[in-house]
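Progress report, Aim 2. The chain analyzed during this reporting quarter is listed below.
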Amino acid sequence: MKNIILSGVRPSGRPHIGNYFGAMRQFVEMQNEHKSADKFFMVADMHTLDANKGEAMRQASLDIILDYLAIGIDPKNSTLFIQSAVPAHSELAMIFSYLMTVPYLMRGHLYKDAEAKGKEVLAGTFLYPVLMAADILLYGTTHVPVGIDNKQHVEIARDVVRKFNHEYGEYFVEPKEILIADAQLVPGIDGKKMSKSYGNTIPLFSTREEIQKLVMSIVTDSGSDVPTHVYNIHKLIKTEAELAPLYELHKGKYKALKEALIDDLDAFIKPLRERREKLAKNMKVILKVVEKGNKQANKVALKRIKEIKKLCGLSA
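Predicted structure tokens for the chain:
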């Protein structure tokens, strides 16, 4: 059976190094390691309707395409597309909504988090796992590179496969999540998980000035020779063997270690930043990449949704 890889990013703001090391880096690695696999990397704009509106949403979606290209995703080898440009995602989500119960969906992380914070829960937030399952299964996906926060959505997709296949016959395969064990919970500048909602991120395409300001603000513990939060970010881009002599030489010297992290982060980010800036100067090329990717995704999705609707007894 041919491997089919799918994942995506929500256009909810500037990506940060947590997004990169937690998931996006895997997109590039899997693209390069699995030449014969079909690869789909989407912009999950429908999952972001609570955050972006109108023209801001369209621009944010194009920004994610730029980000994909800047980190090394090749549109000749992978399909880059925008979720809302493929209507079959919504159709399949509606079909799946009749396989999933309210108590089951109440286990969803986003719903539980919103409820715990006393927020009014949007229906879209509650049904987020249903649409996510449709995203994954629409293309016959076998592998999903994700950050640990989205592992539950792949598990839910597998449950949907079992329910659908039981009701309508064997059609879907159970997808597997692909995780990077040593880089899932990327720490932010305050030591908590790096997250836009916490305001503790280091943007993936930061300027050196931004990097310097953010690194110098990293919370440190004066009771230790090694500033833990600095070190935990540093080891994302250098091996522990490479860092050992540096941290031994500057034991207890937090400013020197932060300056070393600034240099190393800038060296890592600079080529990505420059590539993105260059790509952004020719938006016609970006729009052509999107147009091509949307067509490719729709071609696969239309064939699959017709087969699925036929199994369900719906008009195809």
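The longest strand covers residues 4-9. The mean pLDDT is 93. These observations will guide the mutagenesis work planned for the next reporting period.
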